[in-house]
Design goal:
By secondary structure, the protein is α+β, with helices and mostly antiparallel strands. The protein contains twelve helices and ten strands. InterPro entries: GAF-like_dom_sf, HrcA, HrcA_C, WH-like_DNA-bd_sf, WH_DNA-bd_sf, WHTH_transcript_rep_HrcA_IDD.
């Protein structure tokens, strides 16, 4: 059962969270009284702060210091006090212009999107692009590199390109390679790699052998998640403790962990995971704000930001929402 605070405690908790986000300093009763969020005495504010601490919404890092929010305090703030934010007009214009000017390979656009998101939120940004297996194939070409090695180049409908190496056997000459290119294109153009289990026969067992080997290599690469991170240095600036910085940076370098983190939050229907809620212990001092990238009604990727639990949640939510929406439209346009 969800606990609801009375109006006075709610106002005091909001004041503590907002001031701590802004200053990174423990908040004392004097600050609350001066802010005039509640018209009560300093003694009453101190009493309410003590109750909020006892109920797990605040913690006092030092006896003589003020209080700071706990993960529970941030969660209450996000769920009950954070209204959907709206980006400032100049920022919305910047995002719109960025995607209007984004051309070329999708990989480069996704990388640039992570940098844009990091710049706007002053947090680490994560962009998980669509898996190639979920995007229609536009063209397949087999290119010989030597007598024993070739590369298979696959161009997808969204502009992304995958290259895989393929070992050749004696007799896999240029004519056979051209036949494989033609066979793969006839079978794969316009289809989704994730829906192909096997190829129809070309009538030539050797072409079928090489085509099957190429398809297996392509599908392995196409099932790989593409993750782009930006602004990682912003996270380092947010923490004083060297061990926390080291732990966070090391975790962000692990692509599988990042993908699992973002996917799990989205799959749980959440937009914000605070502290230990996301289940990745090395990132317990961080919050993650995510939004799915939807293309033609399907979830094909995600964007998110990661920062300290004292992040500016309204701004992060608004920014992630706008960027994910614009990115989805841009991918849809091709």
């Amino acid at each position: 059962m969800k606990t609801m605070l009375d109006d006075r405690k709610t106002a005091i908790l909001a004041a503590v969270v907002q001031e701590y986000i802004a200053t990174a300093q423990p908040v004392g009763s004097g600050s609350i009284v001066r802010s005039e969020v509640v018209n009560v005495s300093s003694a009453t504010v101190r009493s309410e702060l003590a109750v909020l601490e006892a109920e797990g919404y605040l913690v006092q890092p030092h006896t003589s210091a003020g209080r700071i929010p706990t993960d529970r305090g941030y969660r209450y703030f996000v769920d009950n006090l954070t209204k959907p934010g709206r980006l400032a007009e100049p920022v919305q214009k910047q995002v719109g212009e960025f995607f209007s000017a984004a051309h070329g390979r999708i990989e480069e656009m996704l990388h640039q999107t992570s940098n844009l998101l990091a710049e706007l939120t002053h947090s680490a940004a994560v962009v998980v692009g669509p898996r190639a297996e979920a995007v229609a194939v536009r063209r397949v070409t087999l290119v010989g590199l030597s007598e024993s090695l070739a590369t298979v180049v696959v161009v997808f409908a969204n502009g992304s390109v995958e290259n895989v190496s393929l070992e050749l056997e004696p007799g896999d000459d240029e004519a056979r390679q051209n036949a494989v290119s033609a066979h793969l294109s006839s079978q794969l153009d316009g289809t989704l790699l994730g829906e192909i289990s096997e190829l129809a026969s070309s009538g030539d067992p050797e072409v079928d052998r090489l085509s099957a080997a190429a398809l297996a290599q392509i599908q392995t690469v196409a099932a790989t998640d593409h993750v782009y991170t930006g602004g990682v240095s912003e996270v380092a600036k947010a923490f004083d403790a060297v061990d926390v910085v080291r732990s966070v940076l090391h975790t962000l370098e692990q692509q599988f962990v990042v993908v699992s983190l973002v996917s799990d939050i989205v799959n749980r229907g959440m937009s914000v995971a605070i502290g230990v809620e996301h289940g990745v212990e090395p990132l317990s001092a961080c919050s993650v704000v995510v939004s799915p990238v939807v293309v033609d009604g399907e979830h094909l990727g995600s964007v998110g930001v990661l920062g300290p639990t004292r992040m500016n949640y309204p701004q992060a939510l608004a920014t992630v929402d706008v960027v994910s929406s614009e990115l989805g439209h841009r991918i849809e346009e091709g």
